[in-house]
């Protein structure tokens, strides 16, 4: 797939020191990257020499010719690039969207700012851009107050592969509707829309869609069927379990290529029925990342069969887990990242000597009832980083001196009793760790 090939190229550039990594995800993939200042200056000079790119500021165009194909606009003048001709293929702009209606050959349009831009985009601005493949608008203010014609013009972009309108401004985006016409774009591969947008209708047929974030499950899906997204790889959903129950599990069972799933389970009550029934949750061969915010039906009796067998990342929040989940989770042999956030109501974590053979990152937040964490010698041998925050009752941590790969330990807002012991009589547990943060 082209996305995987692109990641391989990026890693190759990193290995050659042409690209520098600013931050990686805990999974190891690149989150932010940049280039060295000297390389940047060299690239700019070379771009100027071969007319690869035009940079335009308030002081005017810095270089380039009328044959330029790529432009970066650092100003608010809406007509400043009008003279560059009709050959422009890529536009990155910092500010209000310029008047680009005449640039019919554009393939990439990307807004690179998160400022509160209040000028809405004109409804017909994309009307003639039949070649557009990437449309990224980082400021939802650009869409606030937009008329239906804007969405219609976007829906007619029959070569569009990526639509990115993330949830940036809480005052405008939380309830900004995404009309159904957007889901008529058969070529869409990645759709990142404002949180709480309603998902595609049941009639939607999106065979190329790989990424869908973040949409609310439609009520009509229960009666009319679920949308056809057979090749989805990354899915982020909001769901009300009382409305969907077992049908949600049936829907998931048909997504054979799903690699990353994030489900935000909303609750309207406290009964046991206010949970998703995941008894039919499949053991995906492809799924590597699972995040669940809210109560799921595995809370009362955890079973290893409920989890994808090749899972490498698991994050649980507000899960209301009653029993110690570690004896089950430690059997996930590929798990590298485990995160708890207000997910467990018990007093003890217990891990066996053979548990978590590949775990590298462990994060525990707001486990307010947790008092003791035990790991038998031989367990968690690959652990590199531990973060414990707001676990106010925690008094006992494991014999960490047996974890030879441990590089970083953070204890944030834990009780003074634990901190004093680790800085006194139990210092032997942590003195081998290169980076220790206790606050």
From TrEMBL:
GO annotation (BP), single: defense response
Keywords: Plant defense, Repeat
Residue ranges occupied by any Disease resistance protein winged helix domain in the UniProt entry: 2-43
TM spans (from-to): none
One Pfam short name: LRR_14
Domain Disease resistance R13L4/SHOC-2-like LRR: 95-419
Keyword set includes Plastid: no
Protein name per Swiss-Prot or TrEMBL: Disease resistance protein (CC-NBS-LRR class) family protein
Species per Swiss-Prot/TrEMBL record: Rhynchospora pubera
